[in-house]
Design brief:
The complex is a heterotrimer of chains A (269), B (346) and C (339). Chain A is built from 10 helices and 12 strands. Chain A is an alpha/beta fold and 269 residues long. Chain A has a single domain, classed as P-loop containing nucleotide triphosphate hydrolases (Rossmann fold, 3-Layer(aba) Sandwich). In chain A, strand 11 and strand 12 form a beta hairpin. In chain A, helix 4 runs antiparallel to helix 5 and helix 5 packs parallel to helix 6. The N and C termini of chain A lie far apart (60 Å). The model of chain A has no long low-confidence stretch (mean pLDDT 88). Chain B is 75% helix and 0% strand. Helix content of chain C is 76%, strand content 0%. Chain C is mainly α and 339 residues long. The relative contact order of chain C is 0.17. Classes of the chains: A alpha/beta (269), B mainly alpha (346), C mainly alpha (339). At the B-C interface, helix 5, helix 6 and helix 15 of B face helix 6, helix 7 and helix 14 of C.
């Protein structure tokens, strides 16, 4: 699979009078996992939406292989770039296999029939997410973790080189969060899929990102490896929080421990 | 030191607020008196002042005086019905914590209509008291029904679910009204009055039986103001403040149903008064129900009187039913409220 | 792999079966309307008359009375069924059907105004009704626009507009010099009582045009059921698809309304009933159109012959639809789901 390059050029986005993103310049490393973090309402979801053309920029552009995505035919773009929004809607009673096969939409013409390749793509997506045995179950009956796997399977069936995910772990308990993130890593490793996602848990972000991006009030703050980006200084600037950064003994990645006003060693003494 | 400063700031804010409320109270009462006068003097027939005063004195010697004599009960009815509907709307918005609650939108008025139509067509109900009881029963059953189906499922009774349940129920009941009335050629002519509300043709004789119901309704709803204030904070917090939530809801709701049902029994379904007036009043005097409820009553009387006068003037020499006028004033207002809500809250 | 293929094939089989069944149902009801009225005409005779033979007594009944009625019922039913379900899919809410959000009422109000106040008749009424339907749809869209059109805001604004239009219809009808209950019924609940063969032609043309356009968008509509974001990520131009689907849907609904009045609940009920029958085996568009046709034909038959006294079709579908509507609200609210 050829690596596609996704870059953002002097991008500004706004609604009404307010500007949500200002002059963003960003290059997404292809074949790697990029995680965007920031305080609430810093524009991280907006950035993801702008990258997938859900909103149009005021100025600047998003370039895929040097071409502006706003000039590309929408089906062509959808064959290169998939998006899993924060709260997708499963039509009532739909089965897992049916939902996953909806991901084949951009590969089909208005009247073209379903092909063997489509079946293969769906079967592979189900296998990769370990949801094959759920294929005939209605999506409404699944647990939160299973459901999220199914949605990821749908995005996989789309067979894109780039996959954007907006907080894929919200509403999941911790074991399912790890489960979903591990699954995304598998994909990234096995098929060199470029993954860009928004996460709100700073420690999980540092743990799974190859490339960590922090944002403050609609502007790019820092971008780089988690070790370089996640520092006490960064946490102070991005979240306004005093913290202590230590190293995770299992992964070697940085971990942020918040420092509040109470329960200090000194207080006890 | 700082504490006394805070206290005096709070007292000042309180005083300026209540003086503003007193001002508005005087203004709306003046408006009400003016509209009453207008409602008696203005109509399809121009009446000279001498005949007007003669008629107010109880004389019916010529056509002009007779016309005025007809307008007096009509004015009283518009005044009472407007006050009742607006008060019912304000209470329902408080009980359901839902900005779109209104006896018309939630289907109460149509429910009362359907009940009366069924009573007349199938059970030969004739007496005025029976009409009112049936209408109140219909309104109450509909209120319980719409609120129950509107509050099923995720998120409880959201404005959208309640409004949709009410609109759907209204459509359903409205076609049932037609289905019941159509085969009965003897009452089919009256079908219009059960679809569109009006205050024309009011007499003191027809007004009299409904008065006790309205009075009880007014008393119950006005006394529930303090409870509605607690309910506004949410069920859990209201219970934490010592309110018996279910009881508070039931009594206030019962009062609202009495008002809406009794009004529909004499006027037919009149929509949007209960929606528009409490919202306007909230903008003028704030969300304290102890002020909001009486204000809504006065405002509702003003609105319905004004709508009735307008209905008499715009299509001379015929008349526009007040239910049509309120729909044309109220629907744009409804849309405006919908637009004002933040997307997520709907 | 085989699992995936099997489950896809079984879905396709189920969908095919459901469509066949619904088609048979609509055809049978159509034939029933032609052959069974005040008197029974054997299907063979009906066929002979339709092929041009002249049978005394029968020819008049079929060509003047039953065929116009059956054809208009069939076409209006297809239009209401298809037009209704596309709105429900697009707004992801079964209650967002044209008869609840005001579009049918716009067409009906315009038709009433043309006929009662301007004394117009014929195709011009249809044209004005379609224009009014589109204008109402546009008005509702514009009024509900705030950083994009929110689905719930659209529905609520539609309810408000519908309330206003209903009073307008009631008022215009009440001022009509020859106000009859028949007219009121037609424009407030829908009726096939004054059906003429000439009415069917424009309706058939519009149905072919708009319906065809909608069927080519079937897949896009299916994707839109998963939310605008997912649909956009799958390569659908959401705003463009929406505009096309709404225009085509309004065109059909308004033309049908101008001919028969807003037949109560057909647009609203067809989609959910079709969804019960078809399940999740595939597109709802054709099944829903067929359900609509069956509902209108069946409702008209019941209203004419099976009840004491003659009721217009809208009263029957209204009375039958009301309990189902309420059941649907309860079910939808309980599961928090869509169609």
């Amino acid at each position: 699979m050829s690596a596609r390059s996704l870059t953002i050029n002097a991008l500004s986005v706004g609604y009404g009078d307010t500007e949500v993103l200002t002059d963003m310049d960003l290059a997404i490393p292809s074949g790697r996992t990029t995680v965007i973090v920031g305080a609430n309402a810093c524009g991280k979801s907006t950035l993801l939406r702008a990258m997938s053309r859900l909103i149009s920029p005021r100025r600047g552009q998003v370039l895929l292989d040097g071409k502006s995505i706003h000039r590309m035919p929408s089906r062509e773009l959808a064959r290169s770039m998939g998006l899993l929004p924060q709260s997708p809607i499963a039509p009532e009673g739909i089965t897992v296999a049916d939902l996953v096969s909806r991901g084949r939409h951009p590969h089909q013409g208005m009247f073209s029939s379903w092909t063997k390749r489509d079946d293969e793509a769906v079967a592979n997506a189900l296998a990769a997410t370990a949801t094959a045995e759920l294929a005939d179950r209605p999506v409404d009956e699944l647990s939160g973790g299973q459901r999220q796997r199914v949605w990821i399977a749908m995005a996989l069936a789309q067979q894109t080189e780039i996959l954007l995910l907006d907080e894929p772990t919200t509403f999941l308990d911790i074991s399912h969060q790890i489960d979903v993130l591990d699954l995304l890593m598998d994909l990234n490793r096995a098929q060199a899929t470029t993954i860009v996602m928004v996460l709100h848990d700073l420690n999980l972000a540092a743990r799974y990102a190859d490339h960590l991006i922090t944002m403050v009030r609609g502007r790019l703050h820092l971008a780089g490896s988690p070790q370089d980006v996640l520092t006490e200084e960064t946490v102070r600037q991005v979240f306004g929080l005093e913290s202590c950064i230590i190293t995770d003994p299992t992964s070697g990645r940085p971990i942020m421990l918040p420092i509040g006003r109470h329960k200090m060693e000194s207080e006890r003494a | 030191m700082t504490q006394t400063l805070q206290q005096s700031l709070a007292t000042n804010a309180w005083e300026s607020r209540s003086s503003r409320r007193r001002l508005w109270l005087i203004a709306t009462l003046t408006l009400l008196v003016l509209l009453c006068a207008l409602s008696i003097t203005v109509g399809t027939r121009q009446v000279v002042w001498t005949n007007l005063f003669a008629a107010l004195g109880g004389r019916i010697d010529n056509i002009d005086q007779a016309a005025v004599a007809v307008r007096i009960p009509r004015t009283v009815l518009a005044l009472l019905a407007g006050a009742a509907l607006a008060l019912a709307g304000a209470v329902m918005q408080g009980v359901t914590r839902n900005p779109l609650a209104d006896p018309g939108i939630l289907g109460l008025n149509m429910g009362a209509s359907l009940a009366v139509v069924i009573g007349v067509a199938w059970f030969d109900v004739g007496s005025a008291y029976a009409y009112i009881w049936i209408a109140i029963f219909g309104a109450a059953a509909t209120a319980v029904f719409v609120f129950t189906i509107g509050s099923l499922g995720r998120g409880g009774a959201t404005p959208l679910k309640l409004a949709l349940a009410g609109a759907a129920t209204t459509v359903a009941f409205s076609s049932l009204v037609i289905a019941v009335v159509l085969p009965r050629s003897d009452i089919a002519g009256g079908i219009r009055s059960w679809q569109i509300g009006g205050v024309g043709g009011a007499t003191f004789d027809r007004l009299e039986p409904v008065l006790p119901f309205l009075i009880v309704g007014f008393v119950i709803t006005l006394l529930s103001a303090r409870r509605l204030n607690s309910l506004a904070l949410g069920d859990e917090l209201a219970a934490g403040l010592g309110e018996r939530v279910v009881l508070a809801r039931a009594t206030a709701g019962f009062g609202a149903v009495l008002l809406a049902g009794a009004t529909t029994a004499i006027c037919g379904p009149i929509g949007f008064v209960g929606l528009v007036v409490p919202h306007l009043c909230r903008m003028l005097i704030g969300v304290d129900h102890r002020w909001l409820l009486p204000f809504s009553a006065i405002g509702g009387a003003c609105l319905l009187l004004a709508a009735d006068v307008v209905g008499r003037l715009v299509v001379r020499p015929s008349e526009l039913d007040v239910g049509i006028v309120t729909a044309f004033v109220g629907a744009p207002f409804f849309i405006w409220i919908v637009r004002r809500q933040r997307g997520r809250e709907l | 792999m085989t699992l995936v293929r099997e489950s896809r094939r079984s879905r396709a089989r189920r969908h095919g079966l459901a469509v066949a069944l619904l088609t048979a149902m609509a055809v049978i009801l159509f034939a029933l309307t032609l052959s069974l009225g005040q008197s029974f005409t054997p299907p063979v005779d009906v066929l002979r008359v339709l092929l041009g033979e002249d049978l005394p007594g029968v020819t008049f009944t079929i060509w003047q009375l039953r065929l116009p009625r059956a054809l208009l019922g069939l076409l209006a039913g297809l239009s209401f069924g298809l037009g209704g379900v596309v709105f429900q899919i697009l707004l992801r809410n079964p209650l967002a059907s044209p008869d609840i959000i005001g579009i049918s009422w716009g067409a009906s109000a315009a038709a009433v105004f043309c006929i009662v106040v301007l004394s117009l008749s014929g195709p011009l009424v249809s044209v004005v009704a379609v224009a009014a339907g589109l204008a109402v749809a546009l008005l509702v869209t514009v009024l509900s626009f705030r950083n994009g059109v929110g689905g719930t805001r659209f529905i609520l604004v539609g309810i408000g507009v519908a309330a206003m239009l209903e009073s307008a219809i009631a008022y215009v009808l009440s001022t009509a010099p020859s106000w009859t209950l028949q007219d009121a019924m037609r424009w407030l609940t829908g009726s096939l009582n004054s059906a003429q063969l000439a009415q069917s032609l424009p309706l058939a043309l519009v149905l072919a045009g708009c319906g065809g356009l909608l069927l080519t968008r079937g897949r896009d509509l299916e994707a839109l059921r998963m939310g605008d974001d997912v649909a956009a990520a799958l390569g659908i131009r959401v705003a463009g698809t929406r505009a096309i689907v709404i225009s085509a849907g309004v065109g059909m609904i308004a033309t049908a309304t101008a001919a028969t009045g807003p037949i109560a609940f057909v647009a609203f009920l067809s989609g959910p009933i079709a969804a019960r029958i078809v399940g999740n085996s595939g597109s709802l568009l054709i099944p829903s159109a067929l359900v609509g046709a069956s509902l209108v034909l069946l409702g008209d038959y019941i209203g004419q012959f099976l009840l004491p006294g003659r009721y217009p079709v809208g009263v029957v579908t209204g009375a039958l639809g009301a309990p189902y509507l309420i059941y649907l609200i309860i079910r939808t609210n309980r599961s928090g789901g869509s169609l």
